Amino acid sequence: MLLASPAWAQEKSADAPAAAASAAGHEAEKPGLFWMPDAISTYGEGVDDLFVLIFWITGIAFVVVEGLMLWFLFRYRNREGHEKAYYTHGNNKLEVTWTLGTVAVLVFIAYIQLVGDSSWLTIKAGYPEKDGVVEPGTFVVRVYGEQFAWHFNYPGKDGKFEDQRHSFKSPTNPIGLDVPAKDKVLPKLVVPENVNILIELNSLGKYDANTETYTHPVLHSFFSPNLRLKQDLVPYHPGKIWFKIKQGTAREGEKYEIV
């Protein structure tokens, strides 16, 4: 679940996530039967444009290929007075032609993603962190995935995250914060709009109350259709992703909720 609050962008305190989460809100537009939900990230429309382009290219190719197959089945069916069809080892010129055509389409798609303000360049080159230094004004959230649960760790009033230790983990302190009261940990993502959001992803082991031990972390998928954002969490390999919610997505004092 993701909540966006313009009010929180002006409230620089550790209690801001709770304040934004408790605000009266409106539900995000539900996805249609044949299409995706509305895009709320700044690069979401670019991702949609690429999706639509590939959809039409593959859709046309599918119709042409399947249409030819059906036509050949009808045209060369077994009939009285017609020569029996025979197997062929293929046509080298034809195979080279459609292979080069496929390569040309892939090169074209790659090219348009490497020039201008394409969604791919925006996502990869617009990262709000350079050489390990986070750009000023970026809001950082640490996200931990464990079996059947997500934990969203927000920095304290000093803007810093508490240290973590495996020995501090418990059912009430699942991510092992040194001083849990200083940070804010919620089961949902609450962020301001029109601000770069940097997500630091980690995978946690599941706590077993019977044996008082933790299982090994497993694969998780951090996915938000409205953000057009998906990133897998690989155990012992922390990852980072970023996004920015478009200005005006949430009205003052309200939230934008993704279920």
Report on this structure.
- It is a single chain.
- This protein is an alpha+beta fold.
- The protein folds into two domains: 121 residues, Immunoglobulin-like (Sandwich); 80 residues, Helix Hairpins (Orthogonal Bundle), CATH 1.10.287.
- It contains five helices and 15 strands.
- The strands form five sheets. Strands 7-6-5-9-14 form a five-stranded mixed β-sheet, with no helix packed on it.
- Strand 5 and strand 6 form a beta hairpin.
- The C terminus is likely disordered.
Features:
259 residues; alpha+beta; Immunoglobulin-like; Helix Hairpins; 5-stranded mixed beta sheet; 4-stranded mixed beta sheet; 22% strand; elongated
Short description:
This protein is α+β, with helices and mostly antiparallel strands and 259 residues long.
Helix run count: 5
The proportion of residues in beta strands is: 15-25%
CATH architecture assignment name of the largest domain: Sandwich
Mind telling me the CATH class of the largest domain? Mainly Beta
Q: Which runs of at least 5 residues are low in confidence (pLDDT < 50)?
A: 4-28, 251-259
Q: Looking at the structure, what is the overall shape?
A: elongated
Count of discrete domains: 2
The end-to-end span amounts to 5 Å
How confident overall, as mean pLDDT?
Answer: 79
* DSSP, total strands: 15
Radius of gyration: 25 Å
List the secondary-structure elements in sequence, H or E.
EHHEHHHEEEEEEEEEEEEE
CATH topology of the largest domain: Immunoglobulin-like
Give helix % range.
Answer: 25-40%
Strand order of the largest sheet: 7-6-5-9-14
Overall structural class, as computed from helix and strand content, comes to alpha+beta
Main sheet, how many strands, which sense, barrel? 5 strands, mixed
